[in-house]
Design brief:
The chain has 98 residues and is mainly alpha-helical. The protein folds into 2 domains: 38 residues; 59 residues, no CATH class. It contains 5 helices and 3 strands, in the order αβααββαα. The chain has a 3-stranded antiparallel β-sheet. The radius of gyration is 19 Å and the shape is elongated. The mean pLDDT is 77.
């Protein structure tokens, strides 16, 4: 098998894997919307912040206070609305990773 054939096969395999992971990701998102968010879009406050932490997003106490004041009802946060107000400065993130 030539290098060109091997590269073509490798690229084909990568494409299939990317599609498979995309399908898995979409399935997880649909599952989480159905079973975690439910129809209301509200999640428990601690779960909301745990999900952010899993993705490496650490919010300051000030940011938490703002989100809680605007999007918290009882002990739950409106996840779809709250997530849209979180801005991540990628330049700062890049500087932290250096």
């Amino acid at each position: 098998m030539s290098q060109v054939d091997m590269q073509f096969k490798a690229n084909s395999t990568k494409t299939k894997l990317k599609q498979m992971f995309k399908t898995i990701d979409e399935g997880i998102i649909k599952w989480s919307h159905k079973y975690i968010l439910g129809k209301t879009g509200f999640v428990k406050e601690d779960l909301f912040y745990q999900l952010l932490n899993l993705h490496g997003v650490e919010l300051s106490n000030e940011a938490r206070t703002i989100i809680n004041a605007s999007y918290k009802k009882n002990d739950k946060i409106n996840y779809p609305d709250a997530i849209t107000v979180i801005c991540i400065d990628m330049e700062t993130v890049a500087n932290l990773n250096e």
